[in-house]
Amino acid sequence: MLRRVNFYSICIAFGLSVLLILAGSRYTDNTYYRPSPESRRIIEINIPQQIPTNPYDGLPNIDNILEKTRLKIKLELQNYNFTGSGVEKLEDLIIESGGQPIRSIIISTWRSGTTFLGEVLNSVPGNYYHYEPLLNYEIIQIRGAPHADRALNMITKMLKCDYDGMEDYFEYGKGHLHQFSHNTRLWDHCKYKKELCFDADFTSKFCRLFPFQSMKVVRVRLRLMKQLLENKELNIKVVLLIRDPRGVMQSRQHRNFCQPSPDCWKPELLCADMISDYVAAGRLLQTYPDRLIVQRYEELALDPNNTTPRLLKFLGINPTTSVEEFLVSHTNVEVSGVSSTFRVSREVPFKWRNVLDYNYVEEIQMACKEALNLWGYKLVQNATHMTSKDFYPLDNYTLTQ
Question: How many domains does one find in the chain?
């Protein structure tokens, strides 16, 4: 009996050995074996230490990030002509080195081309992009009290790279990461460790490394910029971006956020703001002729290669190869998405003529006749006129100072 048990034990042991050998050869011969999706999932769960992750496993080395960023900025701007920016060297434009960066603010409203122009400025090497600092105010226009003082203080602090005490800004950003992701140089680090974007100390130090700072704001009207223009420490330059309200309202139809807010979907409020901006522009240009420029979106989109260098020169920024490459890649090809900046730019400004119903265009014109006239936009006479090839919506305009 004992011999029979030993015989069976030997047979079982031998069989298991053969199975193990076969299994081993199956897994080592990559020519014939490909693990199933199920087995890959098991491997990922059981052996997480073998999965490639990201450069910031554990705690990121902040000092290392800052030093690498300093070196990268110097490398990107090694051939930049700083005399065109009114200084002698890079350090003259860096807060960390005791310098003063070149600061610019785009003022407009929703769906007026600010995303495109903001990315043009962000294509400048060494630019830190303050994207929509007032997102947490939701869909409202700030024309005065009760929000103006707090909003302007927030903008001022950000342009000084002082993020201390901005808990509301960071808390909102935790649930709305696009608040940070448009700032590509910051997001290059935050996409691995999002906590970096919520860290006021890191964000402040990182911001102070950059010689150029740009910001786009679509929730504050131009007349409130007087307070910032008076701040000699900021030394900002402002671009007022204006767009035909018919094009604005056509573009807003594609945004779900717009409908609940009267400030976004009522053309009479849009055009009242356009009139306010016209009056403010005339007044501010008297006092700050070298600090404010007005740009119609249609002219930018139709002729970006000539309009962009003019804007950059006004802002004190020399055109760079990276800006030229951005314009080539973003103005000649269509990429779907309401927020995409890849467009055949010349086809965008007057798209409303073939998309909107004439009755709606007539409704907009009735609410916006004065604004259209002030900013040099021609009225449509009827449905046939609207789609006619002979109708060109742009006219000349003059700012009354």
Answer: 1
H/E element, 314: helix 304-315
Q: Is the residue at 44 inside a domain?
A: no
144: which DSSP letter? S
213 Cβ partners below 8 Å, 6+ apart?
A: 101, 102, 103, 104, 127, 128, 130, 159, 161, 207
Buried b (16+ CB within 10 A) or exposed e, 201-233: ebbbbbbbbbbbbbbbbbbbbbbbbeebbeeee
- The residues, ordered by sequence, that sit 6+ positions from 293 with a Cβ below 8 Å of its Cβ are 237, 238, 239, 240, 311, 314
For residue 366, the enclosing domain spans 81-161+208-374
d(CA 145, CA 155): 16
Which residues share a beta bridge with 14? none
CA–CA separation, 94 vs 212, rounded Å? 8
Mean pLDDT per 10-residue interval, the chain, length 401 residues: 48 52 43 36 35 49 95 96 94 97 98 95 97 96 97 98 97 95 96 94 98 98 97 96 97 86 96 98 97 97 95 95 91 53 69 96 98 98 96 95 70
pLDDT confidence of residue 327? 93
**Alpha-carbon span 50 to 62, nearest angstrom:** 25
Buried/exposed 34-47: b ≥16 CB within 10 Å, e otherwise: eeeeeeeeeeeeee
CA separation, residue 198 to residues 84, 191, 205, 249, 268 (Å): 35, 12, 13, 34, 38
Domain-embedded: residue 322: yes
Phi first, then psi: what are they for 131, rounded to 5°?
Answer: -85, 120
Q: What is the CATH classification number for the domain harbouring 365?
A: 3.40.50.300
Look at residue 26 and tell me if it is in a domain. no
Q: Which residue has the tokens 């007032």?
A: 134
- Are 200 and 170 a contacting pair, CB within 8 Å? yes
